[in-house]
Amino acid sequence: MISDLKERSFATRIFLSPCSWASTPLQSRNLQPGSQGITDNLGVYGNTQDLLTYLKSVNHNVCLVAIDFAGLTTRSEDITKSVQTNASLKKLQLKLLPC
Predict the structure, then answer these.
(1) Domain containing residue 69
(2) Which among 19, 35, 59, 67 has the fewest CB atoms less than 10 Å away?
(3) Highest mean pLDDT among 10-19, 22-31, 51-60
(4) Pair 4, 95: CB distance under 8 Å
(5) Could you tell me if residue 21 is inside a domain?
């Protein structure tokens, strides 16, 4: 799945949220110990906390691509807050990649 995402979406950095529900606020995801080991084994850039750190650290525009809305969050206020608090986040795309 990760290699398909890299090839089909031309994503340069992939973050995932292996140990949380879509209803969990983005700021609260992946705070449990052990989730970092999962992301290390899958060859991605990190989890949700790593994504939030990345968004705050860069000074260029970022386009966040999610496989589907529920894969990102089921809380629309999380989307609004993320855009408001991360100046680098300029575009959000929700995509369904064909199988």
Answers:
(1) 2-94
(2) 59
(3) 51-60
(4) no
(5) yes
In a domain, 58, yes or no: yes
Residue 57: predicted pLDDT: 95
Q: How many domains does the chain have?
A: 1
Residue type, 62: V
> Does the pLDDT at position 36 exceed 60?
yes
- Does a structural domain hold residue 99? no
Closest CA to 35 of 48, 22, 52: 48
**φ, ψ dihedrals at 29, nearest 5°:** -80, 150
Rounded Cα distance between 18 and 60, Å, is 27
Q: Where are the alpha helices (DSSP H) in the chain?
A: 2-9, 35-42, 48-57, 69-72, 76-85
Rounded CA separation 55/69 (Å): 19
**pLDDT value at position 41?**
76
**70 vs 85: CA distance, rounded Å:** 21
